[in-house]
């Protein structure tokens, strides 16, 4: 039996490796007396009885599932049913099995035999940690548990000083502080007998979709899970902040708010001007306003950074065994003392996978990725550290991270490394208090976040669309800001301009009159946004809006159009342009890639030789475009349309404030 002298009389001994497991050959020693055991073939699983386990077997093939799982496709959270479904797929072939895993959400690990070898996978982001030994063919839920079982020593090349030097708590790659103890990172499986890791996802290129469709798909898949879980759990816990991830998840929790206990943690700092202090103060202010107005059952949890007591020191000793990199022991103790252990904690962290994180926060990352680029993602200061670069190179080769179809390698790195190591350890700290669930933690969902254009990921359009559709009142509070819509609304501006409710939208092709081009548009009283739906518009494809202008009111007047492209990247010019048409004749054209500031276009109706019967604004493809999400990038916003009295002695027929507009 596994014993540790330094915690022998610890009142929190029952929390050691809580919700944990150990799996290996049947001769391995049971680590903790109160753990249960399941034997399968020549192997044994020792596990904490707090966690659900299910086993299915047919001949030499079998599947063992440990943890909380939801089969989104079949609509079940019954582990017994899930392993039967997975075994049926495995009986066909391993590809069928892997494809079905994409639909399994939750926090779990699976050991399975395909008849030839025993393999291990975990959930989509590795929330259920799996540590493995190459030499001993054993896996465990906690790194130090595995270290003690195999008698491992500390890994000399891992430097503790890196945490302070580079401002990071996670170790490069899949390594731990212990020799022959490694993370099994997401989207790979371990062949237990050989210690070899193979990639099984992604299996095909991403297909670009528009963000509105992706948002609807995600909404549907998340609600299906929450509807299942609400039947199993009497209460949910929800950590609420002022951030976009928390807000997105909150919008989908609208129907379950009555059975949810919301909380927000904060800490008092001596340096009130620090980034951390300012961020937490914004959280407190915004959340309080939201709680007061939405009627949420909420409480604030203060982190006592000076907490020192014999009891807390005993608690810390256990956490130091459970996880080798601390997140916040004081917070973990507050969770343990104040939160309902039978409730399910709904979190949002992994949504950063869909937010272009590394490319948004690191400058000049190349298209491809190497060890030095991975070190740059850890910290810009780490690019000169040869030891860190070497560790990342070994990780890169182990998980076969090169040339993964058309996925951005830095999205994959954030998903599998940042979430699969740092975030996984963070969850271990809260295990003594409660179980954790992230309803986005399925490959079928995360793939939706990554299937949209770069522009969409940068602008968080999916997140905003989910909120708009699910609980739009949440837009009243700005993200990570004390500013609300009241501060942003200029009612005079909103009420100025022609209403666009009767505008007519259509799509087509200049050369092929029979071609139908799908378009998307949104109206906001006096504003509008429209674009082609296709990711790769063909030459001549267009989306246009016919403005609801009465020709009789244009006589001897000025027509003022305030138009804006949402995209700007001059190196990609020559693909799309927006045009202003009078009586079907183009009078102005501007490349959408050149200028995203408001372009005020003024038409003097007296200067036209014929009566103006129709005004159009059109987005058109100037050539066949690459499959880069160009339809969405070519979105045009009509900020205002107004008619004004003509200025005497005016000579210009058409003027534009943009320096890139071509008058035709």
User: How many E-type strands?
Assistant: 29
Radius of gyration: 29 Å
Task: Tell me the structural class.
Answer: alpha+beta
Spatial sequence of strands, sheet with the most strands: 2-3-1-9-8-10
Q: How much of the polypeptide forms β-strand, as a percent range? A: 15-25%
- Characterize the overall form: elongated
Question: Roughly what percent helix?
Answer: 25-40%
Rounded average pLDDT: 92
Biggest sheet record: 6 strands, antiparallel
Residue runs with pLDDT of under 50 for 5 or more positions: 1-6
Report the total helices: 19
Gap between N and C termini: 85 Å
Write the layout of secondary structure elements.
Blueprint: E1 21-25, E2 36-40, E3 43-47, E4 53-58, E5 61-71, H1 79-92, H2 94-101, E6 104-114, E7 118-122, E8 131-132, E9 139-140, H3 143-150, H4 161-166, E10 182-183, E11 188-191, E12 196-199, H5 211-229, E13 236-239, H6 244-252, E14 260-267, H7 275-294, E15 298-303, H8 310-322, H9 329-338, E16 344-346, H10 357-361, H11 371-378, H12 386-398, H13 409-430, E17 435-437, H14 443-450, H15 454-459, H16 461-470, H17 485-488, H18 491-494, E18 504-509, E19 519-524, E20 527-532, E21 541-546, E22 557-565, E23 576-582, E24 585-591, E25 599-604, E26 615-621, H19 630-633, E27 636-645, E28 654-656, E29 662-663
Parallel strand pairs: 13-14, 13-16, 14-15, 16-17
Antiparallel strand pairs: 1-3, 1-9, 2-3, 4-5, 5-6, 6-7, 7-11, 8-9, 8-10, 11-12, 18-21, 19-20, 20-27, 21-26, 22-25, 22-27, 23-24, 23-26, 24-29, 25-28
Helix pairs in contact: 1-2, 5-16, 6-16, 11-12
